[in-house]
Queue: 2 jobs
Job 1
Amino acid sequence: MKLVTFEVSTPVGPFARIGALTDADAAIWDINFCVARSLALGGRNAPLERADLDAPADMIGFLGLGSAATDLAADAIGRAGEADATVWEGRRLRYATSEVRILAPVPRPPTIRDFLMVKEHVENSFARLPADKRPPHSIADMARAPGHWKGNPRNVFGPGAEIPYPSYTDEFDYELELAVVIGRPGRDISVDQAPEHIAGYTIFNDWSARDIQMEEMKVGLGPALGKDFAFSIGPCIRTADGFDPVTAVMTAAVDGVEWSRGTIGDMLRSFPELVSWVSRAQELQPGDIIGGGTIANGCGLELGRYVPPGSVVELAVDGIGRLENRVSAKPESSNPSWHRG
């Protein structure tokens, strides 16, 4: 199942709902209303209120219910599809994708964590850096104690959104990544239990301002301004059934020209291991985003070129879809006194 958050226009303004993509991603079923219809046909009282409990119309609430919610949704959508039902009690059950605006599947994640778990990407990136800007840790260190950084959940962008080009960079970059989205909450999760807490996978573009990122990381902290200005997530959460994150082909194109192609391959640590690692002594929450790291040759840093202002960047992953964003023009500095000398 491909889960999306989408926005519909109403007389009182736009509303965000969650749905499931079907028909080669050309249509969206409204999960909450499909479940309400199914409950009503089954003779349940207060079907709308019950659906709000069993299949909430917000992604974080829905993911927190785990497989019980996704199974209920799949059954209700199947019943609506068999009956060719598109409206129930004056409520739309089905939309053409072109009728709505697709948002980031989790518009405001509780947390964003990103790892660096693809060996070839690490080697390629380090080779591009001057000696004084290379991190002191080794690949063996990364595998032994997987380090990660945390991003700003307020700066999440979905498909079609314009990405702000920071005034303080001349080295604007994309990163082609897969991320897992947490479903069931948990703390001190074992590696064997971790798949039960993974709701699914999404495309993750960890936009980067390389020049300031490298300056920040010289002191052993960060990245901060080098990353926190924007993250693109989407277009959907692909549930784990039938999807293999290791072999899914991933591509990146800038203004229609392919720059990157590959798979995530053999990670230094698997996604279940990363979920287990970050849950030590802390509780993971529904909607948490955990990136596995950029694939080999999956960013401009590795390729020796950067994304110009105004470019259109498209990331694609087989089995998930396409995540396209236009980069804004570069603005004048809002705080020129902080420009690096």
Note: The chain has two domains: 2-102, 112-333.
Job 2
Amino acid sequence: MDLTQPKIHVPASVAEKVIHTITLLLIIAAFVYTMMVYPGLPEPIPIHFNAQGDVNNWGSKAIIFLLPAISLVLFIGLYFLNKVPHIYNLPVKVTEENASRIYSLARTMMAIFNFEMAAIFTYVTFEIIQVAQGGSGTLGVWFIVAVFLVPLGTIGLFIQPMRHRQ
């Protein structure tokens, strides 16, 4: 962390507010869906999948609430972290002249990252429920690759504009 980065207030953009709203609605939907199907879930349910997407561990059906709960905690943490972009470790030198633009980009990137994490956890929760109900899951190598590439791609897409016109 560069302690010399300017500490300025950058208001949330409309895009950032929309992304946060969609993320929160996704997390709420994950909780609601999980609560709706919970009574009909068998005991035990799948709690871990190997790289091919096959179940390799089973556990209590109460565990199904863990991923939406983690998603909510992450959302809250990243939401409040988004309010202090001056503490971010950014790939460019932040000055008084570029701080507003850089912080705005960083805040939007973090909002998108927050959405991506919520989407991943929601999708895994849905897949666990599908497999527990006797369906076939689609978790596998492609999913693992996507879990790494999508957030890295987001970071890459935002670093380029940050470096442009420093």
Note: The chain has a mean pLDDT of 90.
